[in-house]
Design brief:
Layout (H helix, E strand, L loop, with lengths): L1 H33 L9 H8 L3 E2 L2 E2 L5 H8 L9 H13 L12 H13 L4 H24 L22 H10 L3 H5 L7 H18 L21 H10 L16 H13 L10 H7 L3 H18 L6 E6 L4 E6 L2 E11 L8 E10 L3 E2 L2 H14 L3 H4 L2 E4 L5 E2 L17 E4 L10 E4 L8 E2 L13 E3 L3 E3 L2 H9 L7 H10 L3 E14 L3 E4 L2 E4 L7 H9 L12 H4 L6
Parallel strand pairs: 3-15, 5-13, 12-14
Antiparallel strand pairs: 1-2, 3-4, 4-5, 5-14, 6-11, 6-15, 7-10, 8-9, 8-10, 11-12, 16-17
Length: about 575
Amino acid sequence: MKTSRLIFCYLMLLLLALLAVSSTSFSASAVLSENAGNYPLCGRIEQIRQARQLIIGQEAISAVQLIPELYDRRNHSLAWKSERNMAELLTIIESSEKEGLTPADYHLKPLSGLLSLYRTGSMTACDRADLDVLLTDALVRLGYHLTYGKVNPKNLDSAWNLTQKMSGKDPIDVVQSAINADSLAVFLEQFTPTSALYDRLKEALADYRAIGAQGGWPRISPGPTLKPGMRDDRIPLIRERLLVTGDLTETDTADSAVYDEQLEEGVTRFQRRHVLEADGVLGKATLRSMNVPVSDRIDQIRVNLERVRWVFRNLPQEFVVTDIAGFEASAIRDNDVMWESAVQVGKPFRATPVFQDTIKYLVFNPTWTVPPTILTKDIIPKIRKDMEYLQKNNMQVIGKKGKIIDPTSIDWSNTTHRNFPYMIRQQPGPTNALGRIKFMFPNKYAIYLHDTPHKAGFERAERAFSSGCIRVQRPIELAEILLDDPEKWSKKIILEVIASGETRTVSLRKPLPIFLLYWTVASDKGVTFFKPDVYSRDAAVLAALNGKFQLHALENMPEWYKNQGTKN
């Protein structure tokens, strides 16, 4: 009996202790929830600082170094005081889709819920802290992506060497100024690319999304190649397809199954917009382009908007740019195009790399020293087939100290570039592989612009023919622009130097930046051009653009800002 009483007393004491602990825990939780103003931002900043991460709901905070710094400077007070600015940021996030970005990357759903709760006046202090931190992180993410792009191009291309320097402003001050701005939209405009190309691509994105919202365009069945005058049951559907994208503006349905002149014009217009042979003949390549779904074209535009964000900021006033996928080059001065030319670029298995450099000099009547890869894969096999190949192509075998070697003394059957102790050099002349001028920006890839004897290639729509270097159709005009001295280097004088046959190197008075870029979409005067993805690079950009949020480190950023997190 005595033992039973002792057990009962013990159990009662244990129950009272548990109740006391529960009461204390409940009281502490209530104080933290209802009076979190005494506990700065509900401990969110300390959690970021200690754990280097913070999850709010299912959303990971990315700016894990910038946010603590910002709130430290504010003595851990709330940064967002204006409901109008909060609502404006949500509107901007929703409209980020117009930039080809993904609104969900910027905490859209949880922010919408928290802002609705805020408007009811029923949120706890911890909810309010979550709203503030999420708003700040969303602003940093969006501003960063508008400025530098979501995707880090260095992760996709080891040759990438283009950099965008920070403005020199303290990022904390920039973020706080944005939060306090009278118009957040106007403030963020300074971070959005201001190039005409970017604006035109945004318009194209809107146009093609509108087409998608209307159901896109019909798919054309395979069949024989169609030429003017032919009759085919698919022709009415082809007319419908071309009407959707404005390649055909009106139809004459008197005999809609006949490939008439009007349809030929529409097909030719479509071919030009897709960098196809503009012959008005509807063959396999044209049909394949017509059947690309509108969703794929939308993604292609988004990919190229991202590429603009990588590059088009703080560009020099004057530069040369090669559009590899567009097979074109231009010289730009003060946003005006001074020179344009068709170019031939590297074959897919000898792709022209994307990078930037500086044109420092040009060479008239250059010699051409055959690179090792071309020597093994092209030249040596041709010599084996025809021992007179070198003589026919004005080439010499050069040994040490410039000594000319008799090619018949070499066992070409066992020769590769690895055991070949000489070099092969082509002398200047009209058949020289580099033509009569080369434009030099010394780089580790041995890539440069040059003239070419292979003029017929410029007549083709798709011009990926070279071994990596860039063949220029109009080199004389480019030389005039680069030399920039009409009295000393007029077109007449340049032609005289070329006619002399003498190899001559001329340094530029003002070296000029050059950009080798890759764009698969362009837009001009409301017309959108889709170019072939000759090196199959779009898919990787799209996957990264649709993937997890990135806040990649950039050169020349303050150390405390450089190592931002990339968690999602």
